[in-house]
Amino acid sequence: MKTFLYSIAFSLFFLSPYSSNATVKKATNLTEDQAPKITATAILDAYLKLKNALVTDNGKNAAAAGNELVKAFAAFDQSKLTALQRKTYSEIVDDAKEHAEHIGLNASNIPHQREHFDLLSKDIYDITKLLGAGREIYVDRCPMYNKGKGAIWLSEVKDIKNPYFGKAMSTCGAIKETLH
After folding, report:
1. If I label 137, which of 37, 57, 152, 157 is the partner at 20 to 30 A Cα–Cα?
2. Contact partners, residue 74, CB within 8 Å, separation at least 6
3. 23 located within any domain
4. The pLDDT value given to residue 4
């Protein structure tokens, strides 16, 4: 009987759900007392400015917002994060910062900005899941971007305003998730 109980305990210990986003999930599965209520407001605000500039096909404003986002990453106070949140944030932010920098350097190349925005959106999604949005944020998806592979973006409004196709196909997409 003792061997049976040990084998069950051993099996449960090693059987855990696998996720490609496991680090973010582990960091967000903290109890209310363990996880501080911190949101990345300045980061999210700069990202939304960037998204809105791409919606209107404005590469210059997208570049300015990309540069603002780089500054928001640098100014973000990690001191109130748990060790696991800090580690996860650090793993995400380096890539996100690089994409924001590329967007900032390419004011005259909107297609290139959009390529980096696709990758940046995934990073901002992960950061928002990790830290919280502090408000209602919609995760939208365009199924046609990137030759039909699709792409997500975060939005502050329910109306679909597609940053990947801008004015050419401004309403292509659908809400896939709501974050808070």
Report:
1. 57
2. none
3. no
4. 36
Joined tokens for residue 145: 């971007």
C-alpha span between 83 and 65 (Å, rounded): 29
Whole-number pLDDT of residue 40: 85
CA distance 156 to 44: 10
The two beta strands, 174-179 and 151-155, are unpaired
Strands (E) across the chain are located at: 137-142, 151-155, 174-179
User: Residue 167, Cβ neighbours under 10 Å: how many?
Assistant: 9
Amino acid at 173: G
State mean pLDDT over 159-177. Answer: 98
| Cα gap 47→19, rounded to integer Å | 26
Is residue 13 domain-resident? no
- The pTM score is 0.81
Hunting for tokens 């901002």 — which residue is that? 124
In contact, 127 and 92? CB cutoff 8 Å: yes
20 domain-assigned: no
The two structure tokens encoding residue 29? 């599965």
> What is the tally of structural domains in the chain?
1
Q: Are 139 and 176 in contact (CB under 8 A)?
A: yes
d(CA 107, CA 6): 61
In-domain check, residue 4: no
Distances in whole angstroms, Cα of residue 95 to Cα of each of 9, 44, 76, 92, 116: 39, 16, 15, 6, 10
